[in-house]
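Q: Predict the bound structure with IPE.
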Amino acid sequence: MKDLDNTYKEKIDSKRLPEHIAIIMDGNGRWAKKKGNERIFGHKNGVKAVRNTVEAAAELGIPYLTLYAFSTENWNRPRTEIDALMSLLVSTLDSETKTLMDNNVRLMTIGDAESLPKRVRLNMQRTIEKTSGNTGTNLVLALSYSARWEILDAVKSIARKVEAGELSSRELSCDMISSQLQTKDIPDPELLIRTSGEFRISNFLLWQIAYAELYFTNTLWPDFAKEDFYEAICNYQNRERRFGKISEQVVSKMRS
Ligand code: IPE
Ligand code: IPE
Ligand code: MG
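A: Predicted complex:
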């Protein structure tokens, strides 16, 4: 385990780290089922993977790490699972605040906070305040989040400005739209990881991942270890990001 850990970590070029890594943490239920347990057992075991990933990001000095923890669509799950997930969130925020402090991590959140139970909102607020002075990795928890909800909200706020005569439609730009999203102060992710072998985005950061590198792994989230995270970063660093240009242009720019 330790050796593998070192192998991928050693290959990482610390000068070309992504500024923002986003993760769709998937496969908790299947992990539990494989072990003959209830789905919530998988969620509980997913907490360790969250801790390891946050620590790994902090140790490497990744400025932003966004974790998709609960989607708008996840409200359609059975009530018992939703309740168990909300309770787990509260207890994890309590137990992991020390990890965040020890690693100089600042907690932030995106999503529809209003829709969360009060105890989750209060705990979240408390941890956000406690960690607000930390200067290392920014951990962004996506909770009750979906990209279409976020974009719709931004469009409504832009429409209100136009209605009020504060903005004309000619002034609209991509930057203007980005500035109305919940992620307005966060750079777009360069790397998006999804675990559990599913090849879909599930309504996550649709606007922001326009040029993200996508990385899919079969590993189920509770098994996701630091070396899996390092492996994803190595894979990302071996890609050529062309942004619509041709390879020669990108290579000559890198040399100049
Ligand atoms: C991801 O694991 C966690 C959440 C969506 C809350 P799942 O609960 O989706 O697990 P699978 O995909 O059913 O295995
Ligand atoms: C996506 O996982 C949401 C989170 C990881 C929080 P899901 O398990 O809900 O996604 P689908 O339903 O398989 O697309
Ligand atoms: Mg799932």
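A: Residues 17-146+188-239 form a domain with the Undecaprenyl pyrophosphate synthetase fold (CATH 3.40.1180.10).
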